[in-house]
Every structure is written in C-alpha cells, then in structure tokens.
Amino acid sequence: MSDLKEVARLAGVSRATAARAFASPDVVRPATRDQVFEAARQLGFRPNRLGRQLRLQTTNLIGVIVPNLLNPVFAEQFQAMERAARLKGYNLLLATTDYSSERESAVVEELLRQRVDGLVLTVTDAESNRVLQSLVKEDTPFVLAYHQPGNPDYSAVSVDNRAGMALATRYLLDSGHRRIGMVAGPALQSDRARLRYAGYCEAMVERGLDSLPVIEMPAHTQADFAAIESLLRGPHRPSALVCSNDLLAISLIAELRRNGWSVPGQLSVIGFDGIALGAQMHPTLCSVVQPIAALASTVIDQLLAQIAGAAPISHCLPCHIRPGESTQPYEEMLHDPLQ
C-alpha cells in the first residue's frame, strides 16, 4: 500500500510539501498541489489517510451519501441526521449517486479528499460493493443507512426490510386480498428491494398462495402505467399491490387514476417508508413506517463511536403499518378485479 513518501517522490516534492498539500491545500501553489494530487491518484493513496497517519486535528465533518433527494425518505433522513450531528458538534457534507455504483466510488473519493472524519452511506448494493471493502481495508469509519449487510465488518442501521414487507403483505391478506403483486424499480437493483420482495413472497407462501413475479418499473421512484397495463387487463389481475417505496407507490396511484383505475376502489396500494408526504395526499397512503428520526440519530451515534475507536455494530429498528385510504378490505371493493 502506497504511503506519503512514495507520493512525494512521484510528485517530485518533499514529504513535508506533500503533507501540506493534503492538510492545508490553500497554502500550496496550485501547480504543486495538482502534482501531489495526481501522484496520489496514480498510486491509489487517499489523502484522508494522512489525518490518521499524522494525527492531524479532525475536521468535525461527516460525509453523507444517498442515492438521490427526489425520494423524500432521504431528505427526511438527512435533515434528522443534520440535527443529531449538530448537537455533537459535527457538520454534514452531502453527495448523491443516482443509484450508480460508479458514481458511488467517485463521491466517496471526493468526500474523503475533504478529510471527513467518517461516512454515512446508502448504496445500491451493500453485499458486493468494492467501495465498502476498500473503506474497511483503509480503516475509514462508516455506517450504512437502511442496509442489512451480512458482512460483520460493516456497521449498519436499518429496519428489517424482509419482515417489513411481509408485514405489509399480511396486512392486505388479513383484509381479504388474495391476488397481491409487488411493484419495484428496475431488476430489483437495490438490495433493499430484493429483501422486500423476499418478504412479500414469504407472506404469500405462508397462506398457501402464489407470489407474482415483481412488476418492474423503469425507475426506483417513478411508475409507468405501460409496465402494468397488461397485468391489470389480464384474467388474473391483482386486487392489491405492495410497492418497494412510498414515492413509487404515490407515482403508481397517480398513474392508475390517470388511466381510469380507482384506488382503492379497484386496487389497494401500500408503500414502504412512511414519508410525511404520504399522509398529506388523497387518498392518504397506507405504508410501512421506518422510524427515520430514530434511525438518523442512531446512525450518527454509531458513526461517532467508530470514529472514537469502537468496533462496527448493526442495529435493526422496529417498523409498523400506518393505515391509509389507499387500501380497503377486499369485500368493499367497487369492482371485483377477479371477475
């Protein structure tokens, strides 16, 4: 593994100059600073290691990486984390990845160049993520938000995604629905969506019912009526749908109503996240509620403990159903979709 001395040699500067380029870039000439940074890139040396190697003062900055801010769950999470971090004397730096693994690698690098003391990450797939593997090797403190990784070296805070979606599916089953489908983003790219689909399947099998293949939408948070139209017009159309997140459920309800389908008259729809927006729409959204404020404060506490030297741990927080007008018992439906 490369060290600062090797970076300085490749850049053609002294070790002290290389150290200043990382620790106080404003006091180093731009051309020299660029030489040092380019040498570090070529050697795979990450500048923020210097903070640990030289025991420089901490920045009291935490890097936060989320897929996007279009989904209100991440905006609510960030606001709650910002409050929790501020109480502990920390500030947050935010970056988004748009569900791109390549972008995840780039933004992690960018934040570490800012010498953040640790990272909070929501990634596309935590189980096979090279960025996370690299962070463990480099002893960079980080906590995963919303993930349930199998790797004991990863610290994480989440709800039980599988159990949460099983809870949602049983809620519909207990209301008399038998033909229930699940709507999710493209190819279940998100590890959270895959766990939620497993929970849906589990609940259906418990009742001796067939689970349906996932109904795939073109985006994680945006529905397209064309993707579901053939199923709705077929002989085995569902009477209820569970969605992998709330924003997708809200988008789906809008698409259904725009195309002449009554929610919940002809289709019951349930989401997953419990975002505030869902309780303000009409019909109000039935949803699996994640305790976002508790999750955010737990994430910050866990990360600060790691920064102080604690070992990685994981927490799984309880979730619950928030009833809403987007679902109703099967026998109360205006039109029987199974006829």
UniProtKB/TrEMBL annotation:
One Pfam family here: LacI
The answer, when asked if NAD is one of the entry's keywords, is no
For this protein, the record's SMART domains field holds: HTH_LACI
PROSITE patterns hit by this protein: HTH_LACI_2 (PS50932)
Record InterPro entries: HTH_LacI, Lambda_DNA-bd_dom_sf, Peripla_BP/Lac1_sug-bd_dom, Peripla_BP_I
Which residue intervals define the domain HTH lacI-type in the entry?
Answer: 4-56
This protein's source sits in the domain of life called Bacteria
Q: Which UniProt keywords apply?
A: DNA-binding, Transcription, Transcription regulation
Give the signal peptide range.
none
Recorded hits in PANTHER family, A to Z, give: LACI-RELATED TRANSCRIPTIONAL REPRESSOR, TRANSCRIPTIONAL REGULATORY PROTEIN
Q: What is this protein called?
A: Substrate-binding domain-containing protein
Q: Organism source for this protein?
A: Pseudomonas folii
